[in-house]
Amino acid sequence: MGGDPRAWLLGCDEPAARWIVLSELLDQAPGDPDVVAAHAAVVADPGTRALLERVRGWEADNHQSGHASPAFARNLLGLLADTGMTPDADDRIGRILDAFLAHQEPTGRFPTFGTSRASPSPVWGALLCDTYAITEVLVRFGLSEHPAVRRALDRMANDLVATRQGDAWPCVPHPASGFATVRVAVALRRLSDLVEDVAAVDVTRLSSSRRGTGAPVLPR
């Protein structure tokens, strides 16, 4: 204990661990032969293939228990992003990302489709925790500059409201589903993933947002 674990990780039998060490810890370029080989091993790994097989169509009611379900497409894509998978590595990833983008509400939020305790028939509904999690995956797969993703990020900032504990993201019920939940940590992670230079964020605008003047808070 207390030593440098990178050599051990590079020698383990988990292809994703090797890719993460090379690309994230050792900062080797994507074109480096070792990184290319590690990525190819991730793509061919049975564990990766098993995750891909579990990804279901975004426009069908998959009878999931909720957005915490391991079968929720966004959660599966998050795991695939952790392993270093990219949209060009498997067509199924690109198809799900395209489906995310195709179903943005006028508010800028991304909805999900399915039944719920409040709606026995499947409907599209956008909870804040859903849209933040979907936006996270879109950003992680390199779509941060897509216009729909920019709208979702600006919507995220505009959803901030003042509370007695300070500015926060509230629970906002959706008229179709009736549910209202939010995960502040997910929203904050999206900002940290997207903005490398924290000073580039208009913090004054972010902290003073009151349900939307429409002014962007993120650097362009």
Helix share, percent: 40-55%
What percent strand?
Answer: 5-15%
DSSP helical segment count: 10
Main β-sheet: number of strands, strand sense, barrel status?
2 strands, antiparallel
Q: Give the uncertain stretches in residue-range form.
A: 180-187, 197-220
For the record, give the distance between the C-alpha atoms at the N and C termini, rounded to a whole number: 44 Å
Secondary-structure element order, N to C: HHHHHHEEHHEEHH
Look at the structure and give the mean pLDDT: 76
Query: How do the strands line up in the largest sheet?
Result: 1-2
Secondary-structure-derived class: mainly alpha
Q: How large is the radius of gyration?
A: 19 Å
List keywords for this structure.
mainly alpha; disordered C terminus; 4 strands; 220 residues; two-stranded antiparallel ribbon; two-stranded antiparallel sheet
How would you sum up this structure, described in words?
- The chain is mainly alpha-helical and about 220 residues long.
- It has a domain at about 65-210.
- About 45% of the residues lie in helices and about 5% in strands.
- The chain contains ten helices and four strands, in the order H-H-H-H-H-H-E-E-H-H-E-E-H-H.
- The chain has a two-stranded antiparallel ribbon.
- Residues about 180-185 and about 195-220 have low confidence and may be disordered.
